Amino acid sequence: MKVVSTIKEVRDAVREWRKEGLTVGFVPTMGYLHEGHKSLIDKAVEENDRVVVSIFVNPTQFGPNEDLESYPRDLERDSSLCSDSGVNVIFTPQREEMYPEGFCTSINMTGLTENLCGKSRPVHFGGVCTVVTKLFNIVAPDKAYFGQKDAQQLAIIKRMVSDLNLNIEVVGCPIIREEDGLAKSSRNTYLSKEERRAAVILSKSLKLGLEAINSGERNSRNIIELIKGNIESEKLAKIDYVQIVDLLSMKDVETIEKPVLVAIAVYIGKTRLIDNFIFEI
Ligand code: PAF
């Protein structure tokens, strides 16, 4: 496995593979890899001849008061996870490699980006779309792998790939959870012992919502109230949003008649965690 930091080195490696007629899978990440990332990497390794993982804490997707500086980083641990998993190249650029002086272009998507996480993180998805487009252009993979935990991000990337005719198959992979149900996330590392205990309220509350839908409830407001009520029973939790949206448009739905995403964002102490499930009708 090679660890490279320049765009040229990635392109050179991919060019050699292409000469041999090999397929390329790509897993974009911000590092501090956990079993969620590992599941994407494993799928990429299974489905492609060669795999590139990018590790880049992308500054343009963080708002001014967010955790860009404190975002956890551990390249050594990430490298051994990648190497053990069969990754061929890690691309870990410096900020200047991705955003050289004078950089002034961005991808602006409307519609899917304003609801849910877009409400409290207004610059986030513009930054994600811009960096992912750049990474797609650098790696030029056949397939790229994203986790369902960031469900809105996944919907946005799929839409962007379709709208911009990017020749890449976007593969969504299921949420990986801790034993008690907490969705794996690099940000879980911010939680104190007490907060970690409290954080299980997210998945527990979603489970209640799913049970209600499975029992025939179709009124979004009733399901949302049920989920909110349960989250509020945890004193360390503060709700950012609990919403039920159309799976493709990310717009709120009043009645569940088509596939929906039930998505929540909750602060546990200062840490903002997200979780969701999809209900296919
Ligand atoms: O999901 C993430 O880790 C990031 O948003 C991504 C896709 C790597 C872009 O920086």
Automatic annotation (TrEMBL):
<comment type="pathway">
    <text>Cofactor biosynthesis; (R)-pantothenate biosynthesis; (R)-pantothenate from (R)-pantoate and beta-alanine: step 1/1.</text>
</comment>
<dbReference type="GO" id="GO:0004592">
    <property type="term" value="F:pantoate-beta-alanine ligase activity"/>
</dbReference>
<dbReference type="InterPro" id="IPR042176">
    <property type="entry name" value="Pantoate_ligase_C"/>
</dbReference>
<comment type="similarity">
    <text>Belongs to the pantothenate synthetase family.</text>
</comment>
<dbReference type="InterPro" id="IPR003721">
    <property type="entry name" value="Pantoate_ligase"/>
</dbReference>
<dbReference type="InterPro" id="IPR004821">
    <property type="entry name" value="Cyt_trans-like"/>
</dbReference>
<feature type="active site" description="Proton donor">
    <location>
        <position position="37"/>
    </location>
</feature>
<feature type="binding site">
    <location>
        <position position="61"/>
    </location>
    <ligand>
        <name>(R)-pantoate</name>
    </ligand>
</feature>
<keyword id="KW-0963">Cytoplasm</keyword>
<feature type="binding site">
    <location>
        <begin position="30"/>
        <end position="37"/>
    </location>
    <ligand>
        <name>ATP</name>
    </ligand>
</feature>
<feature type="binding site">
    <location>
        <begin position="184"/>
        <end position="187"/>
    </location>
    <ligand>
        <name>ATP</name>
    </ligand>
</feature>
<keyword id="KW-0566">Pantothenate biosynthesis</keyword>
<keyword id="KW-0436">Ligase</keyword>
<protein>
    <recommendedName>
        <fullName>Pantothenate synthetase</fullName>
        <ecNumber>6.3.2.1</ecNumber>
    </recommendedName>
</protein>
<keyword id="KW-0067">ATP-binding</keyword>
<keyword id="KW-0547">Nucleotide-binding</keyword>
<comment type="function">
    <text>Catalyzes the condensation of pantoate with beta-alanine in an ATP-dependent reaction via a pantoyl-adenylate intermediate.</text>
</comment>
<dbReference type="InterPro" id="IPR014729">
    <property type="entry name" value="Rossmann-like_a/b/a_fold"/>
</dbReference>
<feature type="binding site">
    <location>
        <position position="153"/>
    </location>
    <ligand>
        <name>(R)-pantoate</name>
    </ligand>
</feature>
<dbReference type="Pfam" id="PF02569">
    <property type="entry name" value="Pantoate_ligase"/>
</dbReference>
<feature type="binding site">
    <location>
        <begin position="147"/>
        <end position="150"/>
    </location>
    <ligand>
        <name>ATP</name>
    </ligand>
</feature>
<feature type="binding site">
    <location>
        <position position="176"/>
    </location>
    <ligand>
        <name>ATP</name>
    </ligand>
</feature>
<feature type="binding site">
    <location>
        <position position="61"/>
    </location>
    <ligand>
        <name>beta-alanine</name>
    </ligand>
</feature>
<comment type="subunit">
    <text>Homodimer.</text>
</comment>
